[in-house]
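Table 4 source record.
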Amino acid sequence: MGTIHDFARRTGRSEDAIKLVGVTKTVSPEHMLEAVEAGVLILGENRLQEAVQKQEAVRWPEHIQWHFIGHLQRNKVRSAINRFQMIQSVDSLQLARTLDTQCRNADIRMPILMEVNLGEEQSKVGFHPKEVESRAREIETWGNLKLEGLMAIPPYCENPEDSRPYFRRLKGLLDRLRQNGLQLSELSMGMSHDFHVAVEEGATIVRVGTALFGERPVA
């Protein structure tokens, strides 16, 4: 398929413009350390309890960042803000308010991404595309969240090319927000089977698990 850097160069972008998040759900700390030694700098966890166990299991290099990429329950925010350097999956205004309050109490300014429900699926969480700009402007008035961009998990498509319209839509949404004065730069989209399409469509962050760690049991 090619590497992230291959597809970045193909589209005229710097290979340093795309960050790789190693999605480590169910992966052992020992296997994760092998990925870190191979150059993975950001680890992405979906579940807080699993992340806590891994973070406490071994001595992690200080330069490693941890990103939360799953649905974060509001009653777990206080614990999460002390363990992650970014919350990518802020999927509601209520969660954002709780994050801001807890970060203020802890004297933290937390980088976040707004998760957008691109497919407008009732079974999924996330901001509706039509409300993203108004909610983003509201969040930017708060003092303890640093809104850096958008994130999405589009409907699963067997053919990666079928994901392209969703990625293009998210990029277009980010471009419109920037044209309207919002200082946003990050676009987190694309996973193991379709990251190459996401990179071609402007992703700055890709979340890759299976392609790094192999198939894992369904949990």
